[in-house]
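Entry type: protein chain
Record version: 2
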Amino acid sequence: MKVAALSGGVGGAKLAEGLMRTGADLTVIANTGDDFEHLGLSVSPDIDSLVYALSGLADRERGWGRANESWSFMGALGALGGETWFNLGDLDLAMHVLRSERLAAGEPLSAVTAGFLGRLDVTARVIPATDQRLRTLVETESGRLAFQHYFVRERTAPRVTGFAFEGAEAARPAPGALEALQKAERIVICPSNPYISIDPILAVTGYRETVRDAVCVSPIIGGKAVKGPAAKMMSELGLEPSSLAVARHYRGLIRALVIDEADAHEAAAIEAEGVRAIVAPTLMAGPEDAERLARIVLEA
């Protein structure tokens, strides 16, 4: 089965791993709005989460980065007065250094990413949303913040009032992305933050017009996000943190929404929005849970 998935970082990467484990012919279109330049390096957090998850290198306990990581570089950096608000592990540095080198040599991000996957023997494809510059900016009561400054440096503390996706109008989908969506037998929207993980992808010309009849897994369980600030953002934007709000956000793009058993009471309201509600355990504690959920998604 040809499957195309739209994904952000940790939660999306877990489901992507589950989809790969089903044997699906998988292409994941990754958010690049989180990308930024730090310490002279090009960092792509969501792409890296996907690469690590699909290659079996992810740190499952911490929930991000590589397993068996060490932090000598950060310690030395701090001792010299460098910025330490964004952690770069010793093993993780290899990805950022090589990416930066290859981008500087003129390789597009999509080719760099495909090269990493090939070296790690990953058969699934991860395609960046775009090879052009795309940056998520968070509008807050304290002013506009670059995404990583809001998310990591400020620890999501400022109250959110909106979002902007710098570069989206000029950006174009990376090679192969729209083709994967057009040929897919299933399109999946992973349980990633709708506003800062999936919307940046959809803001690039061509995606919103191509995504159709998708199956989405809600990132909200019992009024809370499993990981990240999605529920906080929804509240600050005047929305009830709920799977119903997720269904409304993706109206016109999805045909089904997989919601957790804790939110079964929302099923009727979701279906009143013209979206089929599928109730299932959606918490992915490990690869087996992710595969089980992936099979439910593909059968939806």
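Comment: The mean pLDDT is 97.
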